[in-house]
Amino acid sequence: MHEDEFLMTKIRHGFVGQRLIVLPFNIIERALHDPITSGLAIHSMGYFPKAANHYIERENGCGEYLLIYCIKGEGWYWLDGKTYTVPTNHFFILPAEQAHKYGSGEENPWYIYWIHFKGHKARYIYEQLPGLQLIDMNKDSRIGDRISFFEELITALEMGHNDGIINYANLSLYHLLSTFLYVQSYRDVKLRKKGEQNTFILSLATHYMNENIEKRITLKDIASYFGYSESHLSRLFQKEIHYSPMDYFQQLKIERACQFLIHTDMKINQLSFKLGFDDPYYFSRIFTKKKGVSPKKYRENNRLKV
Known about the structure:
Blueprint: H1 3-12, E1 19-22, H2 25-33, E2 41-48, E3 55-58, E4 65-72, E5 75-79, E6 82-86, E7 90-94, E8 100-104, E9 111-118, H3 122-128, E10 133-134, H4 143-158, H5 163-181, H6 183-211, H7 219-226, H8 230-241, H9 245-263, H10 268-274, H11 280-291, H12 295-303
Antiparallel strand pairs: 1-2, 2-9, 3-8, 4-7, 4-9, 5-6, 5-8, 7-10
Helix pairs in contact: 4-5, 9-12, 10-11
């Protein structure tokens, strides 16, 4: 696609809220001859919201590969004599130098992010993503992250055309395309990070419990200390270790009681008060429920083994 053709379509098919960047010819050529960015380079990119009556037909194709990502509404495209409907959360890539048509749906116009790109690696990207592709939406889909990255690249190119910006955008194009090429890996990376964050929070919370094991603390005390809601902390404990926070804290107290029973001569009622239980009988009931024997019996059984 040539710049004059693109500007014509912009005038004929401008959309409220659109974002649109067309790089000057010399900037594109410089990027294609730069060893750092020659593999893939951006020609133009943008966002067309509610693109009613959007229609492009190119009898000889254009000089770039074109990725169109429909995030809302629907559209269609024609390639190799076949017409394909493009629903929400689908994308497709059109090959360079090949006749094609595409446009927005009449009743439910599409909202699209798009990017024209070229370079000697562009063909390999196209070959890995043939036809119409679905990006299914679920709780881990990262659709918002991908859209934010599109917006970031458009913003970068709006800032100017110096070497730093152009190289940043063109190298970032690899990352953007990889979110389409390797959807599951793109999702798993964030899930891993989220899992590590959860593990870190749990480690801090259990450390806090151990440091306060001889006190009576509440779920509110723990949650407030870390700046989380009680419900969030409870869900995290249940999901990761299958205990509620207070059940886990109680379990830590019982395990500490076992150590005292084995290695000290502390009386049961003294041990109860030391571990924050006001009622020695309640402590004994909880201990027996957790360990299957009374504190006294546990001491007898385990001291024989020492």
